[in-house]
Amino acid sequence: MTPDEQTPFPDGSTTALLERLGTRSIVFVGLMGAGKTAIGRKVSQVLGLRFIDSDHEIESVSRMTIPELFERYGEAEFRALEQRVIGRVLESGPQVLSTGGGAFMNAQTRSAIAAHGVSVWLKADLDLLMERVSKKQNRPLLQNADPRAVLAKLMDERYPVYALADLAVATRDDRKEAIASEVIEALCNHLGVPGSIHVSEVSEDHE
């Protein structure tokens, strides 16, 4: 058996988790810089599910970048498009879905996620988020003279809503395999699947 063919779980654990998940999607929520895409990709690799980034889907549908959509149509119109795209994606589970930072703030989107998914909040502190988002210039909400203050305000506004997610996993400056392992452990506990999963044992070949 080659490394690519080896199961990352003890026998039966993958099957049990996927059976409990059914047609639901694993949906990552949280602020920009929390690692939703990186951790989501790792979890999808381990579980053998496809990975979808809602921002990439929105850009594909609109043929515009997220900053261009914000600039041309404003945040309200962007959120309406985001709601429609996420709702459509959720109809084709199971899969791992990473959502934009503001997506879970929309009540209709939260309802759709609750009906068709298991939501996972990647919770990060302000210093970690600032360190990560400062490396990228494609954050429309942070085009401000004091991005740290903006991010702190977003945390105050959004964290109580993110707390409505099914699961919360603290993220930090650590290997993505470690965070993904904690996410999968939380999913197993939530879905009543016994067993311990060590994501670090999984081959990196498919990233």
Q: Care to give the gist of this entry?
A:
InterPro entries: P-loop_NTPase (IPR027417), Shikimate/glucono_kinase (IPR031322), Shikimate_kinase/TSH1 (IPR000623), Shikimate_kinase_CS (IPR023000). Helix 2 crosses helix 8, helix 3 (54-62) packs across helix 4 and helix 4 runs parallel beside helix 5.
Fraction of residues in helices?
40-55%
Q: Give the topology string: H per helix, E per strand.
A: HEHEHHEHEHHEH
Specify the overall morphology: globular
Structural class: alpha/beta
Fold and architecture overview:
The chain is of the alpha/beta class and 207 residues long. It has helices at 13-21, 36-47, 54-62, 66-90, 107-116, 126-133, 147-162, 176-191, and strands spanning 25-29, 51-53, 96-98, 117-123, 167-170. A 5-stranded parallel beta sheet has the order 2-3-1-4-5. It starts with 12 loop residues before the first helix and ends in a 16-residue tail after the last helix.
SSE blueprint and pairings:
Elements: H1 13-21, E1 25-29, H2 36-47, E2 51-53, H3 54-62, H4 66-90, E3 96-98, H5 107-116, E4 117-123, H6 126-133, H7 147-162, E5 167-170, H8 176-191
Parallel strand pairs: 1-3, 1-4, 2-3, 4-5
Helix pairs in contact: 2-8, 3-4, 4-5
List keywords for this structure.
single chain; amino-acid biosynthesis; aromatic amino acid biosynthesis; globular; Shikimate kinase; disordered N terminus; alpha/beta; Shikimate/glucono_kinase; disordered C terminus; 5-stranded parallel sheet
